[in-house]
Amino acid sequence: MRQFQSFSYRNSNFRLCSTRLDLITAEIVRQRELLEQYILLQPLFRTSLEPIGLLPGAPPIAERMAAAAAQTGVGPLAAVAGAIAQAAAEAALAGGATEAIVENGGDLYLASPQPLRVGIYAGPGSAFNCLAFEFTPEQLPLSLCSSSSLMGHSLSFGRCQLASVLAKDASLADAAATLAGNLVRCAADIDPTLTRLLRIPGIQGAVIICEEKIGLGGNLPKLCRQDSRAGIDLVTRDKFSNFPHRNSPENVMPQHS
In CATH, what number is assigned to the domain containing residue 51? Predict the structure, then answer.
């Protein structure tokens, strides 16, 4: 059984699994500081709701976020959680770790030589909380990023219970999940939104849940059943969000094994 550790920095909350947690946490801090320093030079990077150009000398993480924004049509900060998760996991792998799993408030980067299960959480009482993805080692590394219009504190213009996107590039998956959350306002929006997502180069698959209807598209891992009663206790939580609290959450996709 994997052992996960919690880590918080500034207003971000993580769940981590690796033999090199020291490298992961150090990279989280480093990347966050790089972004904060860059935002002082270009405040629009933090506030824009659409793609923007970068100043000369922007750090690589800002470049990845801006590229994801350009592909999806959202602001660059929509990609921040995925970007940091991938950078942190890759730092551990570069330092000799064979496994690095980083969850940043529902946005995950997964690298492991062993099978991995990630559960779906679509809100209190959702019938789909009994579902989980089963990843094989051959499918990894991979990013799974999620957005919700109804859970968490992130800005969303839709009414989507859950939009989860798979991609090798976590920045892209994160930005695309935000796009889906913005587009889906009712169940009738699920299919056209899936079609739009899957036309974006680099998007492998997506799951969208709205009004207790589910849509799936692309190349997804195997879906299996999980104990939905355990899901709420395994969500990474943000005390400032509107998430239903048990002990402490952000928005989605929590359960790992």
Answer: 3.10.520.10
Backbone φ and ψ for 159, nearest 5 degrees, come out as -135, 45
pTM above the 0.70 mark?
A: yes
At 1 the pLDDT is 78
Residue 16's pLDDT band, with cuts at 50, 70 and 90, is very high
Residue 64 lies in domain: 5-234
Nearest to 181 by CA among 124, 129, 106: 106
135 found inside a domain: yes
Residue 131 CA to residue 178 CA, distance in Å, equals 21
Q: Residue 142: name the closest of 178, 177, 170 by CA.
A: 170
Q: How many domains does the chain have?
A: 1
Q: Is residue 253 part of a domain?
A: no
CB of 164 within 8 A of CB of 106? no
Task: Write down the pLDDT at residue 150.
Answer: 74
